[in-house]
Amino acid sequence: AVVSTQSTGEFPGGPESILSNIHEIISINKRMLEELKSLYEGKVAVPSITEVIRSFVDHQFSSYVTYCANTSDQQFILSQRRLEDADFDKYLTGRENALAGQNLQSYLLLPMQRITRMPLLLDAIRKKTEDDNPDKPAIEALHQDVTSLVNKCNEGVRRAETRRHMSDLEKKCDFTKIRKHLTNFTEKSERLIVREDVVYKLMFKSGKMVGSKILMWLFTDCFVIGLPDPKNEGKILLTEYSPRQLMRISPHFFPPTSYKKKLEPERIFHLQLLSPDKKFIIQCQSVNDKKGWVEALKRKETVNEDETIYDEWDVPLVQAQHHYKKVNDDDLELSEGEICRVLKKYTDGWCFGQRESDGEQGWFPMSFMVEIDSDHARYRELLKKRKLLEIVASDKKAVELFSTMKKD
């Protein structure tokens, strides 16, 4: 409430940029506490504490996800304002001292701390409930749902912190060499950093090895290499870009026979960018770093006898040609024209996917859908053509070799 007394123009997004939706959180907690008190005093006919909590979890606790996702920005904006405005800091310090030293930044973290304790409370109730108690299944289900909600809150915090890091990073980067493909890191709201490291690019010439320090970033949709700017300390020159789909990695490294010095192959891997075709020998700073990169860059798409499970960052897009009315509870009802991301596809004609507009997931029949243009579709065709060219080139070499053998 202290901050809300200031004019909205004094904050980049008004006082709500610091307070977020804390008023919703306060209101939810007051009402839940009142209902729990009424239950304790026997004033309401609700059978158990879990039913009270369940009603709030199902209909109102999503406000916590929103609040937690904003905490990183809250803390940053408030810290910056206090550093830049001595009068504002003095005013807040006075108010905090008047409130028994309650620091505003700590106060704003309380909702996140409270929701993360909720699974512990429910777990304690679950453990104290006898197995033959008819309420036990409902308590266990509530515990699972609240744990899932807390995971969403934590993911929101992680995502916000990563996005802030990306924003700070792009201010240090020169995108000139890759601007045809990428001009900033934060233009896509779904883009996040998957992995980043300082590594060494190795080159072997005339029995000698040359290693140069480079920076690598793997994002959810692309891969970028950068170099420290020799003319501008603290700046980074971005030199290579690749869609994540157009990369190959080989964890096995064998040094050239002409190089006699000892190497550590367990820290080295081969990396190939397919468009344009460029190959790198990468040395990580540790064995674990190499394992992390190999795991992050490895395709996880699986094709079994009955199903195809896609990588979450490389999925087909389909559009509903007709309205699909859900038949089962876990189906996804679709209106004509709605677009979905296909997460799993089965040979019986059914897909499990996610609606683009709201993120809701469920099952739908492919017979109602048509695949539309997407990065997945374009890169799939490009890889098919490349594979065909590799086969043709391989066959040509085989014919040439066979012809040579016949002459000999």
Protein described:
The protein has 408 residues and is an alpha+beta fold. The chain contains nine helices and 15 strands. The protein has helices at residues 16-19, 22-40, 49-59, 62-84, 86-98, 104-128, 136-172, 287-297, 375-407, and strands spanning 173-174, 193-205, 208-219, 222-228, 236-243, 247-250, 268-274, 277-283, 302-303, 307-309, 317-320, 339-346, 350-355, 361-365, 369-372. The protein has an eight-stranded mixed sheet with strand order 1-5-4-3-2-8-7-6. A hairpin with a 2-residue loop joins strand 3 (208-219) and strand 4 (222-228). The longest helix has 37 residues, at 136-172. The radius of gyration is 28 Å and the shape is globular. The N and C termini lie far apart (91 Å).
Main β-sheet description: 8 strands, mixed
State the share of residues found in helices, binned by percent.
Answer: 40-55%
Tell me, what's the shape? globular
Percent of residues in beta strands: 15-25%
Summed up, the helix count is 9
- What is the rounded distance between the termini? 91 Å
**How many strand elements?**
15
Question: How are the secondary structure elements laid out?
Answer:
Elements (H helix, E strand, L loop, with lengths): L15 H4 L2 H19 L8 H11 L2 H23 L1 H13 L5 H25 L7 H37 E2 L18 E13 L2 E12 L2 E7 L7 E8 L3 E4 L17 E7 L2 E7 L3 H11 L4 E2 L3 E3 L7 E4 L18 E8 L3 E6 L5 E5 L3 E4 L2 H33 L1
Helix pairs in contact: 2-3, 3-7, 4-5, 4-6, 4-7, 6-7
